[in-house]
């Protein structure tokens, strides 16, 4: 028996004019004396503002802690440059979530949601990264972005299968009672039966089977292009690759098969994922295409994977909507000599979360954040 769950779908749109993310910060400062007012704040506004600034720093550190290891390394190498522009990255458009002023302990605590301009942070990180020799090797390279944006359509959840075993053990005991009246002996036997029952077994749960709907692939390619632009890389869409292989080589188009496999519409043992044979055919087609122009190959890198958007939900701490995006992307370097693709970096599976004033905005921001963080992380790993 299986239960079908139909999930509400969120329009897959990208919002380009919202560039910040919200992060919580909590700070407690000491008061010079008993200065608390009835509204749970210190009498001196300067002390309130001091606590706010410290909470901003905590929020900033919480944001930095979401970075991948490679991104943290890039940040730490240029930390002073970021801290000198702290006011540009963390603005005054914060939201106070909680305050507590305590005359007994002479402390003031504040919790805020701070807005951090993530796009500006990533842009500066890319500027620093693009100066390295490894990053400069990417200049002018071509990359096919075959990253499938997915939204859950149907999830089949199967009932648990329970197998039970019962074992019964029987035992008997005989008692002899001997009466001695001095002249004769008699014996009496009594039998007591005992049984012990042992039960055991196992519970088997079959993995949930999901099918997906595809999101806006063109918007996904556009997002990836924006991130790769500082490295002067040429980002190509799956349809471009399909058309080039079909027109120049006469091969059948593969993207329809690939997307169907990633959406779970093709029944095979790999679930909602690409069949290794299909991936190998894709790589061989790319190499054949590159041999048409060996002095400048059409495709140097292949970006392959998925980004899955959850249904947005209310975050009760902030009152905003939050949305999660599960990222699972690999970057391959095409090896024309060996007709192969070498995986040089990967991201995921990991979850990116963003907040927005509506469910659609939250979903859009989460997708934007996922692409931005994932592509940057891949490049930092090179």
Main attributes of the structure:
single chain, elongated, 382 residues, 38% strand, 13 strands, eight-stranded mixed sheet, three-stranded antiparallel sheet, alpha+beta, 11 helices
Write the layout of secondary structure elements.
Layout: E1 2-6, E2 20-30, H1 45-64, H2 69-77, H3 79-83, H4 86-89, E3 95-102, E4 107-117, H5 118-129, H6 133-136, E5 142-158, E6 161-180, E7 185-204, E8 209-214, H7 217-228, E9 234-236, H8 238-249, H9 255-262, H10 276-290, E10 301-309, E11 313-314, E12 321-335, E13 340-356, H11 359-381
Parallel strand pairs: 5-9, 5-10
Antiparallel strand pairs: 1-5, 2-4, 3-4, 5-8, 6-7, 10-12, 11-12, 12-13
Architecture overview:
- The radius of gyration is 32 Å and the shape is elongated.
- It folds into two domains: 6-156 and 207-381, no CATH class; 161-204, no CATH class.
- It has helices at 45-64, 69-77, 79-83, 86-89, 118-129, 133-136, 217-228, 238-249, 255-262, 276-290, 359-381; strands at 2-6, 20-30, 95-102, 107-117, 142-158, 161-180, 185-204, 209-214, 234-236, 301-309, 313-314, 321-335, 340-356.
- It is α+β, with helices and mostly antiparallel strands.
- 31% of the residues are buried.
- A hairpin with a 6-residue loop joins β11 (313-314) and β12.
Briefly say what this structure is.
This protein is an alpha+beta fold.
The class by helix and strand makeup works out as alpha+beta
Using the CA coordinates, give the radius of gyration: 32 Å
* Biggest β-sheet description: 8 strands, mixed
Order of helices and strands: EEHHHHEEHHEEEEHEHHHEEEEH
Shape: elongated
Number of domains: 2
The helix content, as a percent range, equals 25-40%
- DSSP helix count? 11
Question: Termini separation (Å)?
Answer: 47 Å
How many strand segments?
13
Question: What portion of residues belong to β-strands?
Answer: 35-45%
Spans with pLDDT under 50 lasting ≥5 residues?
1-18, 155-159, 171-180, 183-192, 203-208
What is the overall pLDDT average?
Answer: 77
């Amino acid at each position: 028996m299986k239960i079908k769950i139909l999930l509400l779908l969120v329009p897959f749109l990208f919002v380009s004019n919202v560039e910040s993310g919200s992060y919580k910060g909590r700070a407690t400062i000491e008061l010079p004396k008993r200065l608390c007012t009835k509204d749970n704040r210190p009498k001196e506004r300067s002390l309130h503002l001091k606590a706010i600034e410290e909470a901003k720093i905590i929020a900033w550190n919480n944001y930095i802690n979401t970075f991948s290891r490679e991104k943290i390394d890039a940040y730490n190498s240029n930390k002073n440059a970021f801290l000198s522009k702290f006011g540009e990255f963390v603005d005054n458009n914060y939201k106070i979530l909680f305050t507590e002023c305590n005359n007994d302990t002479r402390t003031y605590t504040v919790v805020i949601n701070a807005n951090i301009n993530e796009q500006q942070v990533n842009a500066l990180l890319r500027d620093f990264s693009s100066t390295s020799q490894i990053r400069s090797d990417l200049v002018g390279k071509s990359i096919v972005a075959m990253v499938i944006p997915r939204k859950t359509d149907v999830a089949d959840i199967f009932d648990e299968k329970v197998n039970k075993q019962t074992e019964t053990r029987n035992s008997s005991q005989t008692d002899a009672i001997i009466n001695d009246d001095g002249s004769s002996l008699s014996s009496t036997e009594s039998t007591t039966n005992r049984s012990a029952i042992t039960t055991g077994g196992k519970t088997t749960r079959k993995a949930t089977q999901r099918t997906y709907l595809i999101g806006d692939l063109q918007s996904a390619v556009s997002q990836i292009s924006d991130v790769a632009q500082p490295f002067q890389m040429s980002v190509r869409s799956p349809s471009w690759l399909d058309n080039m292989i079909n027109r120049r080589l006469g091969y059948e188009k593969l993207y329809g098969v690939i997307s169907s496999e990633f959406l779970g519409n093709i029944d095979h043992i790999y679930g909602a994922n690409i069949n290794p044979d299909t991936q190998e055919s894709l790589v061989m087609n790319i190499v054949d295409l590159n041999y048409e122009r060996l002095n400048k190959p059409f495709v140097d890198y292949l970006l392959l994977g998925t980004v899955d958007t959850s249904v947005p939900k209310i975050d009760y701490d902030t009152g905003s909507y939050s949305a999660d995006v599960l990222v699972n992307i690999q970057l391959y370097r095409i090896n024309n000599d060996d007709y192969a693709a070498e995986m040089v970096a990967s991201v995921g599976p990991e979850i990116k979360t963003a907040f927005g004033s509506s469910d659609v905005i939250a979903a859009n921001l989460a997708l934007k954040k996922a692409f931005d963080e994932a592509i940057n992380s891949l490049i930092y790993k090179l």
